Amino acid sequence: MQDSQIIRTEYSDVMKKSYIDYAMSVIIARALPDVRDGLKPVQRRTLYDMHELGIRYDKPYRKCARIVGDTMGKYHPHGDSSIYDALVVMAQEFKKGMILVDGHGNFGSIEGDGAAAMRYTEARLAKITQEAYLADLDKDIVDFMPNFDETEKEPVVLPSRFPNLLVNGTSGIAVGMATNIPPHNLTEVINGVVKIIDNQVDEGRETDLDEIMEIIKGPDFPTGGIVINKDDLLSVYETGTGKIRLRGRVEIEKLKGGKERIVITEIPYTMMGANIGKFLNDIAGLVENKTTTDIVDISNQSSKDGIRIVLELRKNADTQNIINMLYKKTRLEDTFGVNMLAVANGKPETLGLKAIIEHHIDFQFELATRKYKNLLGKEKAKQEIQEGLIKACDVIDLIIEILRGSKNRDQVKKCLVEGITEGIRFRTKASEKATAKLHFTENQANAILDMRLYKLIGLEIEALEAEHAQTLKNIAAYEDILTNYRSMAKVIMKDLDRLKKEYASERKTSIENAKAAVFEEKKMEEAEVVVLIDRFGYTRSVDLSVYERNKESADAENRFVVHCLNTDKLCIFTDTGRLHLLKVADLPYGRFRDKGTPLDNLCNYSSTEEEILRIEGLNAVKSTNLLFATQQCMIKKVEGTEFDVSKRTIASTKLTDGDKLIAVLLIGEEEQIVLQSTDGYFLRFMLEEVPVKKKAAIGVRGMKMNAKDQLLQVHLLTPNGDDIAIYKDKEVHLNRLRISKRDAKAVKTRVS
Length: 752
Description:
Blueprint: H1 11-31, H2 41-52, E1 62-63, H3 64-74, H4 80-89, E2 101-104, E3 122-125, H5 127-132, E4 144-146, E5 153-155, H6 164-167, E6 170-173, E7 178-181, H7 186-203, H8 209-213, E8 226-227, H9 233-239, E9 241-247, E10 249-254, E11 260-266, H10 274-288, E12 295-300, E13 309-313, H11 319-329, E14 333-339, E15 341-344, E16 347-350, H12 353-394, H13 396-405, H14 409-418, H15 429-435, H16 442-450, H17 458-483, H18 485-503, E17 510-511, E18 528-534, E19 538-543, H19 544-549, H20 551-557, E20 558-565, E21 569-574, E22 578-583, E23 597-598, E24 612-617, H21 618-622, E25 625-630, E26 634-639, E27 649-651, E28 661-666, E29 672-677, E30 681-686, E31 700-701, E32 711-717, E33 724-727, E34 730-733, E35 747-748
Parallel strand pairs: 8-17
Antiparallel strand pairs: 1-3, 2-3, 4-5, 6-7, 8-9, 9-14, 10-11, 11-13, 12-13, 15-16, 18-19, 18-20, 19-23, 21-22, 21-24, 22-27, 25-26, 25-28, 26-31, 29-30, 29-32, 30-35, 33-34
Helix pairs in contact: 2-3, 3-4, 7-18, 12-16, 12-17, 12-18, 14-16, 17-18
């Protein structure tokens, strides 16, 4: 191949162009709705296919598998799951402000249950879809384009009569952008559209957003609930982005004996699906970790009739405080992130409330213009025919004479249209002369030739004249609509009013300003407890008095005995250099002989991977410094306050490869330290020589050792004490060792 035939280009440029093409394809043809009908391509194609298959609201249901297969084969070759998922969503009342598909069978539930397979479910168009989305498609009111293989035609957009983008909302993720528009109340949206048109027609002015929001109060979620940041909605609807705070609706039911129970009847829109189960688990978690002790039972009594989650409370419980806890610590209060992104004029654009409605109004005037131009053309065609037939009735004798004197249809047609009488036999010259003055149009001539004789009956002629009069009225009306903005506006508003009257619905979501939920967590009464951990890792806490009565048994049977407060945390130091923090309140509390719970189940500690070196209460740790020593004789002091963290597991120290922690000691009044190696080397020096380091530091070397030697033990010497270490079953009096310097070479002590 010659170089002249090779097109050289930069690889990055090719990738950039390809990626942009891909991104725009996903944005325009897959993920984002059109501002005009508020539908994504898959939704639009599915509805149009059902329309073409004749699956109307007054016809029998058809298998969803048939609908999906036909849509995929004709219009949407992107897989059956995307089509069926779109079909299911359009049939779910709890997701859409107005369902577009009438489903028959299992189409899922608000609690996250999926729809049955498409072979089991059936569907048909909803009545409103047929009347407000698919009507007048035969009147050339929208453009059609070839499908993916150019074997069919599909509408570029459906002629939606109201702003579906607002009524049903939408959500979608494209490439580099996403949309999330909440649903709104149909009645309010239509009233808002009418208000804008009215102001333009009657007063010749634009409508302010404030004025629109007096009508469209805010979103209206099918799950109900409460919008609690009313004052923020103006900004959200002005910019098209922002956050809407939602709360579930809660009722308090009085029971016998002074008890009460909390009943959740409506949930935030964002809690739908699996989040309901997570919500119940969150409440159970709050009870388990003792955030509240007033909830004694949780039950989900929801059904097809609606949400009903019941929380049974203790007698004399602070009900309002518990409700505030649910708002504060669960998804009963949640945020809906608004991003009103849609395709407008062929490109993605973030639109405010007013802009969306104005785009819709422009679309409605475009639809009305095309519709009435089409109707006007048909009426004018009818007028032409009617006038021709009426004129023919007046000269019917002459026309019959022409028919009888002619040889064929073409000869008659030329005579009626052009006045050519050659070859036609007339009874008189007067008739021939009169024929030349007829001058029918070609369409009129065809209609005359096709006219049946019964049309000459007097009553039929009267009916024809009446029909002609009506046609003239229609033409005048259509011309008025097309030439007069006010007249077209009235027609559009009349259609909207009809839809509003038939499909109006009450608002489900309340709009208000609410104060932030304040939850006052009941403080635990502070008390001294003793944490007992046996050699198998089973852990529990007991009251101090219980421990003192069983002190001898407790000390003998348990590996760790920790005195602390019930409000404290346990600091669990392991040989891997990890620190696990565990709330004492999370430990099982009870009787002395209770077995307890394995420590592995209470925190991130793993008994198979690490060994506990020390367990202390956090309060004790914070009040002093800690001494860390590793197997390779790296030592350091760390301030105890460094371990007061919120995380459950942190690195208590830094270790080099192959090293491990052997000792974590709390420093009290001790002034000296003794390091003991496995080979029997001892080094005694002043504790002040050990520097204070951060927990992330490795430390400094404590003493010089042989290559194969390791640090075995660390001893803190008490003043004026007689501390003893054991080496080869012999006692070593540590206070008698010679005081040296840190990092000196240790001396092997002779054991006598």
